[in-house]
Write a structure and sequence with these properties.
single chain; CD59; two-stranded antiparallel sheet
């Protein structure tokens, strides 16, 4: 979501009883730049945001735009985020809950596109 904002999540699908009793670890974060870029921003009380370009790292080959609401007790403010993402984030469906350190994001929209090199962005 930008140089100061990073959201990492991990999931595991299982097909048998009690297979979800284990602990999901925080995914390892590869901060090596991969030559791709995406617009990045975070906004509260809005459904969309625009921001400067950020450099993607590791396996982040997609640009993602997320929106939804924050579960914060009875107060449910809207939010919008954009940034680099791995392909798996593109499969997040409306209603998906993304836990963070302090609250839960409930997604209403996920849009993905392939990340591009700085040269390709300048050509737009």
């Amino acid at each position: 979501m930008g140089p100061q904002d990073y959201l990492a999540t991990n999931s595991f699908c299982c097909q048998s009883d009690n297979c979800n009793s284990g602990f999901l670890s925080v995914p390892l974060t590869n901060l090596t730049e991969n030559g791709l870029m995406c617009p990045a921003c975070t906004s509260v009380f809005k459904d969309k945001c625009m921001g400067p370009m950020t450099r993607c790292t590791g396996k982040e080959n997609y640009c993602v735009a997320l929106s939804g609401h924050v579960q914060a007790g009875i107060f449910k403010p809207r939010f919008a985020m954009r940034g680099c993402a791995t392909e798996s984030m593109c499969y997040a469906n409306p209603g998906a809950e993304v836990p963070t350190a302090s609250h839960v994001l409930v997604l209403s929209r996920t849009e993905c596109s392939k990340a591009a090199t700085p040269e390709a962005w300048r050509a737009h």
